[in-house]
Batch of 3 targets.
Target 1
Amino acid sequence: MEKDSRPSWDNPMQFVLACVSYAVGLGNVWRFPYLCQMHGGGGFLIPYLIMLVVEGVPLFYMELAIGQKMRLGSIGAWSAISPYLGGVGIASVVTSVYLCVYYNVIIAWAFWYLFHSFQAILPWAECPANANLTGRLEECELSTPTQYFWYRETLNITSSIEEVGGIHKGQALCLLLAWMLVYLCIVRGVQSTGKVVYFTATFPYLVLTIYLIRGITLHGAMNGIKYMFTPKLEELANPMAWINAATQIFYSLGLGFGSLIAFASYNQYHNNFEQQAIIVSLINSGTSIFASIVTFSIYGFKATFNYESCLERVRLLLVNSFDMAEDSISMDNMRHWMAELNSTHPDQFAALYHKLENCSLESELDTAVEGTGLAFIVYSEAIKNMPLSQFWSVLYFFMLLMLGVGSMLGNVTAITTPLRDSKFLSRHFTKEVLNGLVCLLCLLLGLGFTTRSGNYWFAIFNDYACTFSLLLIVLIEIISVCYIYGLRRFEKDIEDMIGHCPNWYWKTVWAGVGPVIIIGLFVFYISSYIMGGTPTYHAWDKDLGRSVPKVYPVSAQVVIVLLLLSSVCCVPLTALYVYCKKKDPKEGVVSCPLTSKEVS
Amino acid sequence: MSARLLFALCLALTWTSVLMQDLCTEGASDGYKVRLSIKTALGDHAYEWNESEMFLFKANLAYAMRRHFNMQTYNVSNIIVCDETPRVSFWFVVANPADTSQLIPGGEVEEAVRKSRNRINNAFLLTDQTLQFLGIAPTLATTVIPNTPPWLIAFIVVICVVSAGILALLVSTFMKKIRKEKGVLEEEKLENVYENGIPRDGPEGKAGSLNGGFMEDERHTQL
């Protein structure tokens, strides 16, 4: 009776779009282009596609199969596979909570920039004037207007993680709005989510296409695209390229959070998820490549713009110092003039030498940025130089919003689905109230990221909250499905659902290749964390107008360790709890001292 | 007599101009260097820098001095220019109209220029960056700070729309629940009717004691 009354998607298309909307997120736009740039441009596609086929699609397939078969959220599904594995589901939920709390802050920032785009002059286009109106603000002069707007106006960042500062009211309001929007989309569970994903899954593609057309037609875009597509194949020998490709596939598909299990649990029993898994994974990777073409054309434009501004500054310096007519030196004959002036006025030229900048297009293109720096600083710098910049700005930040909200729907569903499965909670709270409470809790926790030092804590969560625990969760998942639940039993379930057995390729990956790759990644993470020494972060120094590296204080390092361990230790703790409960069914006690008999 | 007068006048003029030229030197403490970047600013519509343009500059500066001191005594002849270069840059000093051998101190000149900077710029179709007075800081336009920041307006609009959406969904869910509960009550009532296996109300409805079953039989038996 329970299974029949479970809500479900109106049609399989909604499920596919929900998965696409969840998987295609901000990481496709701001992490993949960075990795491409770091690891030899077009050549990075080779490890990326290999990892997609070898690791991404099979794991995605497996999670969808589990969700559709068990028809429960992550906690229920893993408890059904084995009672001792309920902890895996709880670990997924805890990781999802961490993700929800910090991810929505990005949407708050996107809202902030979106609202600030409705002005005649974009606020990050120029530095504001200083107090006595004689020049620009010093902090802004030393850095750039876009960096100033990000660090000072948007974040009002303190100079280190220890200085907390107060809550930035504008950010707190935007975070409230972000959570209200997410609540609006999930308030009725899959019925409301199913309708929203039509928009959140398709709109970003529309914007990316418009941006592609605009980007390619910008002056200098070809420099960026050429830079991206010239493969530097020697990078493939670097193991980091392969590790980064594996982790990118892993996180980009959103494995291990329980969202895929939750989404699939609302499917009809005989839904053909094998085809859907392949389609969604291919769409996700295709979107990454598409987004990186757009990003590189924008990079090319920005780099060319900066390079030409640099040349212009050098030209002006020469013309002003030697009092020559304005049009005597142009971009083409600048080198010739520099040599001539060096020979005719050597002393003057020598005095000038340290002021002459070395303008290089290559070095401009080499500055690789990822994450919030790319999305909010580099892109907004490129946008402010485009004609009709307000329109492009609104379009871009609206796209970021849709990408973020699409992923958030999956993240929050991963939390609400297991909670709804619990009989206790669903009896006392209606769907709407439960979803509202989850959103409210995450909002209150997320307010910590709207403080002045919030961005530093955001970086901690971004780097440590989900990375390590996900690897462990997926490793336990794949091993328990293959060896505890049994590969044959799993095979039979899939045959029951879609009508044919998974072929030898899937089985080989699940049983052999997949665990090996994940163990490899796992070992690499642990060793790099241990051998990396004290972790550092980049703090904004307002007197220098740039970021300076600083070491994390003890309190932050404690938080890092807690983050890494807190979700992971749910697994053994829950197993222990279940074990104890089984031992004393009559008493029903939670804690049980192990007697010497039990220990032996 | 007139020839002698003319000669004396010419001598006096040359002597004053030589004296005035001595006042204007490169790096004069009371003078400023001016640099114009006409081709950068105007591109194809750039005008040529010639004596007339220089006259306009002197006139503008004289106007600036008049405006600052609120005196009508300044004239084009009080502005002394020297060291012109092909870059279109030169030095200028301002002589006191009351005593042409004295210069107006640099501080006063700076203030006068700052006050009328906008007018001077516009006379030449240039900006603070393309008509540079080296050493005189530009006066930036005061940023107009509106009472409500524009972003807040957009925020309020969006949050109202989202709140309205949430309320609409919650209210409709609530109404549906109430309707369902009413529907359940109705169903329960009908179920109670058939509880004893005997239709109390019958096909005619809630009318009462007529036993519809027998009614039907009667119709048949009439045939």
Target 2
Amino acid sequence: MNYVPGTASLIDDIDKKHLVLLRDGRTLIGYLRSIDQFANLVFHQTVERIHVGKKFGDIPRGIFIVRGENVVLLGEIDVDKPCDTVLQQVSIEEILEEQRLQQQSKQETEKVKMLALKDRGLSIPKADNLDEY
Amino acid sequence: MFRFQSLDEDCTLEEEDDGLIEEEDEIDQFNDDTFGAGAIDDDWQEEHKRLAGLDDGSGLGAGLGGGGGMGGESDLGGAFDSSSSHHHSSAGQLPLPPSLKFSLSSSGLPPPDVEDRAGEGGLAESLARLILEADPAIAGVGAAERPAPLPSSSGSSLSILQGLENPMVLPQPTSIPHLNQLHQHPHHPQHQLPPGPSSGLSPGPPSSSMLSYQQQQHLLRRGTGPMAQMNSHSIWENSMGFGPLSMTPGLITHMEDSPLMSIIKEVGLPKRPPQGRSDEGRDLSERVPPPRSSSPVIGSPPVRAVPIGTPPKQPMSHALNHQIHHPTAVHVRAPIQHRYPPPFPERLSPNTLLNLANSPLCRGPFPPGVGSVLSQIQRAQLLNSQVAGFPRGGPAPPLLPGGGFRPFYGGPPPPLGHRMGPPPPHCPPNHTPTIRHNTTHLHPQHRRMLTQRMQNRGVDRGRPGGDRRSRDPYSNLMSQKEKEWVTKIQMMQLQSTDPYLDDYYYQNYYEKMEKRQERERDSSKKEHTTKLITPQVAKVEHTYRPVQFAGSLGKLTVSSVNNPRKMIDAVVTSRTDDEEKREKQVWNKRRQILYTVEKMYSLLLEVQDFEKRFVQAPEEDREALLEQHKSRTLQLCNALREKEWDDRVSDEQCVMIMSVRKGKRLISRLLPFLPSPQAAAVVMAISRNLPALAKKDKQDQVLCWLVEPVAAVIQSLSSPALTDLLQELQGNEGQLASVLHNKFGVTLLYLILSEGERMQSSDSNCQLMDDNRWTELVFSVTRELLSVAPSLLSPPLFTPPNLLSLFSRYVDRQRLELLQDKLQISSLSR
């Protein structure tokens, strides 16, 4: 805003806490330290937050450099605002376990579906799995 | 004496003499005033006495003599020998060496009160004071000096100043004799530089104060040539470091500073530009190369070794200073697009933009004291310190070179500071006044909105955010420079050759807003009617011409994004219409044939499958199937017909079908299913057109597929039909020959003959012999067989065994044997 009036720029977001959602579905929270013209981001004190149902867990990751093309959305976190959320924070092990279970159930349903389709002689080509969002 | 010279010190006096005479006329009158009738004689005499007296005391007087405008000796220390020097030199122009300037300046120029005193007495006194301060040696002497009347006062002051040329060097007695020598040229042009290798004095640029206007102008025009030192011994030689013309103005500017100001006023020199500017200009103009020695700020990029996209490493303060503070940089304006077409492809590097951005911006937020010396970074830091929490004011640059914002507006530039954001006359006191963003490219409305928004936000969010950020130890990892650099790139991306294409909605929205405003208010306010033109980059047509070196083999291997290497020479070949039509026709026909073949094939397949299906099908369906079968067969037959109403098998159609490999196969499979008359007709057609078919078959060689079905057909033929067939086969002249060349033809022939023979042998009352046709035909066949060259005779697929008996009927023994040999027919069948 200051630098390029009339347009949007990440310059003003520097040194603020952000939440970024990546194309592979990961959610990172950290302080945005540096950017460049491709919107590559440098995050400091990054935490990866995994959400499963109503629970979430934070995994500290340190410094992250995100390539700009992999960003789905990015938003500033207001640290002052009180955080009233129904989500419940759990430990890392627990959340990872939950995630694993979730993945497993997903795969199973997928498998069943494929089988049913195959019986009918249909086949749905496997979509590009890289972008889950 | 101030003829322009080269700066080498070895030029002799003789050269000077020649050139100076012409100038005499121009400056003469002033000289006259100073030294001629206008001058008062008494003065110099008195002066001389005084100074002579002083000379005895301090030994400086003699030194003055030489200094009398003649570029006297370096020995001249006597500041008070002005009269003598005057007299001797008869030159109106007395050089003031640069050292004098320094000495004056070093002595701590007296405050303007010196200048205030315009009185002659005051002048001399002030000068004297200066001198005293400068050189304690002559402190005692200074008091003795008395001011002289005006014309000579200038002389006296000059001489005083001259005396200061060499404050450290005491005058020598030899100076006076030298002066005397000088006087021997009384009629020398007064502007002539004094001859004499002894003159070690570097004249320096003439004291501007002493010169009349014209003289000064001449001097300026001639540059600092005459200042060149002739005597290499002079200690003033190198002090000046005479450079190009531009040096002179600076120096002269400085010259007139302080103590001489009053003198200048008296003499009536043109006023110089105000002090402040000259200060700045002087400081930097010495360091900055003259206006056009380097590429201008506007238009061309600074030469960078690193490519455009690399982030900045070090502050480019020097370059920035040069570009920003060069006085001409900002004033060069429209028509920007024409005068300075960007030499490199249509875009400005972020570094250029950075420089350009700062040139207008640097003026704004800083108090005058900060001024010119700060670099980008320093200024930024200053700002930062001023306003905690806000990064430095927007450097968003104009996207066209230079400060050329005016061309962006069709109408008069809006009165709201077109370079900076609109001045905040109404802004709240706690607004950060120093931050100015470059919003020129935006619509005035837009800009106003933005400033308002900023003002509001500035109040609210400034403090707390700033606090926290200051406590964060990792903050500001991204330096100001880097932020700006990224912003530059982003701005570069906004460059547009066609804003209506690239930013349609923005343009339209603001246009609508404008119209709306016009409707609401009256158009008295001119700013609303200003048409916004977003920064555009001139559309430059780039034709890519691959770089080639004459005489080299091949092309360059190095290529980049901007100059790709030509890999393929794609040449457009256009064929004439006729050719194209013909080709198309050919293709169309072939396609049609293929299409027919396919259709027939599908029918055929169904027919062929009939048996199988019939067996498999349940009882009730069999009839239906039968019906279907019949209809299919009918269709097939019809397909062979050329026209709907024609019952006969079309020759053309058959031939057409058979021209295609698949068609031949089709026919061979089809024949068994055709009803006999039609099958016969087909075979007839084949034999009739055998040469043509044979020719077409050269590539495929699949005619032989037809042998079996044809054989079957033949066997079902009646004798007349057979005869006909044979006749057909023989056809026109020479057809038989070509038939014999072809394997299939030979085979067919044999088949026919063998069938005939079989008929004859088996059936006693066969009608084959009823007419002579058969016999004749056989005869001709035999004749042909005998005559044809053995090499050309192609071996058949198989040789029916009864041929021998056939031939034995018609030919005599001799021929029979010949035939036998040729055809290798033996009683044994093969």
Target 3
Amino acid sequence: MSTWRRLHVKVQTTRGLFTSRAVTQRHTWLKGHLMLCQSLSTGTPLRNDFFKDLEAQLAAVRKKAADALPGSSWSALEINPNLPPERADIVIVGGGVMGWSIAYWLKQKERVRGEVKVVVVEKDTTYSQASTVLSAGGIRQQFSLPENIHLSMASADFMRNINEHLSVLNEDPVDLQFNQSGYLFLASEDVAHIMETNYSTQRDAGAKVALLSPTQLKEKFPWINTNGVALASYGLENEGWFDPWTLLNAFRRKAISMGVIQCCGEVTDFKHTTNMVMTTDGEHLGLRRIHSVKVQMSNSLEYQPVECAIVVNAAGAFSGKLAEMLGIGLGPKDTIAGIPVPVEPRKRYIYVFHCPDGPGLDTPFLIDYSGIYFRREGLGGNYIAGTSPEEAEEPDTSNLEVDHQFFEDKIWPYLANRVPAFEKLKVTSAWAGFYDYNTFDQNGIIGIHPMVNNMYFATGFSGHGLQQSPAVGRAVAELILDGGFKTLDLNGLSFRRIMAEEPMLERNIV
Amino acid sequence: MLPAVGSAHRHQATVELRLGVPPSSAHQASPLPHTAFLRRRDAPELDVSVEEEGYYGYTQRFYGSDLAAAYYVLSMKGAFRFVGQTEWYCPDKKGKFNWDFLNHRDTQLEEVNMNYTLINYTGLVNLEEQRSLRTLSVRGCSEVDDWFLARLHVLQDSLEELDISHCPRITTGGLAALRNLKGLRRLDVSSLPGISSPGLVIILLEEMLPQCQITATGYDLSLS
């Protein structure tokens, strides 16, 4: 009956806005009583439009009646169409390259179509702070841990055949713009033996790497100053750099075409139950099981609790914060509950500079023993460079502002020392991004946390997550769907090493 | 340690000494089952040797790697010349070839011509042992891409002449991989549709390979 009253009010205030009538009527319904939410018309009052309006009123009444009848999709309760579904099998928190890679592989490996319902929750679809798109985009096999080498090799194989994996019917093929330029690591006297050990590990694992003496280095790359270089390690194949945005979008496009649901929102809370158990050490441990995830919509008070069986933490730099919501790390020290997920954001800068006489097409991704790195960008004499700061001088992570003085103090001197042509350069641009830095041993964490038995982690890659994302996605999908690793044995990268305090240190982090 | 996926190619089914065997349709795995037949209809050329680019292990075990490489070249409809000989072995239009090459065991290949064939990255494994290979020509090969060029580093000591013209899938990123071929004296990069600024790329290539003579025709290098 109140609908008739509202119609009467509408006649007096708005003239001729018939098409927006349905919208304005809903607004008045939500507000609970008769609020005139459209601005009052200050034009001339109605004169003889009574019969014209009557026609319009009757048309509106007919439409409302048709809506109210079964078979129409109108409902009085306005539901935000962007909300995630109420139930899902697997919720992946984080829509970066790692999250979408896991989503793709889950769908790729399912045995029956529609077996798993996967939802990917990403809080910022502009990816303004996401580590994936701010990355330098390099891929290398020159690691010291065999797990890392195998992960990168498998990812390079994936990227070589990317169109077999990620092409969608009737869409353009994926072009990663892969530059096959290889990585070049330079070692001084004191670390040359480490490089030699790493070289034999890499060779055993099947990576195509070559060791160069300073003379050979000078012959191959005449623009390098080989002062202080005792040994160099050079990647011959499957190394280089590519476009991270293309890879992210390729994974996303393919996953969505296979039925993964994308949701733009932030995970703010978990509903979980705790089961108190006594460990063998006599410690009381609260084993948690997640029942639902609370997804908060952006710029709104609306949220949707998503009931799920499994949650995947692929939130990158923010995964530590997400784990804290479950109480991981908040227990007393020296207990399992007191060990937090050791992932925190660390800000890293990348500077773009132009040098007219710099090295040409054969420039590899050069990493000096002083910590600086640079690579060619495009064909116009532009390069990008960066370095890792000292532990004590880590920049503030509350924003992504760039410190330009950092380039002058910490990067340029070493650049100019290594490549004399870089004494004359001009910085054209710079940006900053977060590493999902694993403070424990700077290597990825893949697997379940002992305290939460249905949250899988794929985070903490500390700067080499992008290059390992296809293989890690496959590994996590195997963990979830097959119960264990099938193609690559990554048990060394599980939480066990953090619980036992046995770091798997990598000697090649940049 | 479980083996990495990268080595799976080497353990693929070996190809026996048979010609003209169609690949099994199980290879053509498609993520969306209802589109599988669509893909085959749209791309009939995939029915031919691409899926058969396996490791010629059977041949290698019985005849040695050099003859396996020779057999591989001939079965892909390419031609080759042995070291120290002047005659070329090549198949005729129907793909039949003379089996006389089997008489020359343990003779390496010196020149290989695979123009307009379906050679790709996986097939290159059959030529990896040819350390005396001086000339390789893959003109007009539709499956030769940047990863193929990166794999050519295995021939870096011997390769002197390379022809990669008219290959549609090569881009600038792949040409950067040619830096390893320091012995290269003649390079043909004509008419590559995949490179965006050919004039600049040719200059950079000439700087990268100072002792190499680069042929690059078929580009519109005018400044208009």
